[in-house]
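Handoff note, outgoing to incoming analyst
You'll be picking up this chain. Sequence as last confirmed:
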Amino acid sequence: MGQSTKEESINVMNGWTVLVVTLLGFASFIGLMVFFIVSAVNESPQFWALITAIPTLLASIFCSCGFFALQPNEATVITLFGSYVGTVRNDGFHWTNPFRTRQRISLRSRNFNSPTLKVNDLRGNPIEIGAVVVWKVEDSAQATFDVDNYRAFIEIQTESAVRQLASAYSYDDGEKGEITLRSGRDEVAKALAIRLQDRLKQAGVLIEEARISHLAYAPEIAQAMLRRQQAEAVIAARKKIVEGAVTMVEMALTDLAEKKVVHLDDERKAAMVSNLLVVLCSESEAQPVLNTGTLYN
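Most recent structure output, in case you need it:
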């Protein structure tokens, strides 16, 4: 990297004041030329008026080339014969030496939507990922002189940071307490913003927000991963149903014993537990069965 350039604020002249002086210069030129022509018609030409009018015109034209205006959240980077002079950030109508080169740069917040990238996550699974970045120019001198094209620089560095981020996290199904791309959206967004800020600080760019805008498995494994997720969901639902059924059976047995509704031995308790679990855990409605006998005959 070359030497870093830091922004320096400078003050320039008020454009309206110089505009008045410039208009007076043009008016003076017209008046002097009229006076010279009239004197020449009267056969007593006043050459001093002509000699004065020409420099006045050149000076007025020179001054008229130095006007520029800035809107809020805009800046103008000024250089003189290749040397950085400073940056004007004050909005309004301004004037500066016309020999100075002026380059306007926006300081407003802007969005960049990265293209959808196909990368491998921490476990090597191919995934598709994209990000949206909110950024703005913080240092106009760095954005102008330290990188060739700060917009293209942002696009390339964002793509690189997103690829690096995706390879540092798993898409899903992490270990207990592990942050994944799918479950840890806030943590991942913060990590992405830190990576981007570290990469773009040399361009004078401030990252205001960075978030994952697109996240999915690559098409070649999407169906397999969908079936796995469906299986995990079924297992989780079954586990919840069984836990609830066991709790309900335990409550039923406890209430029967405490209220002395009926006395059940271990074998009848086992049969009751079996019947209740079948009723509570079954996906279809239970069909009543009339038992004309007992458990013992």
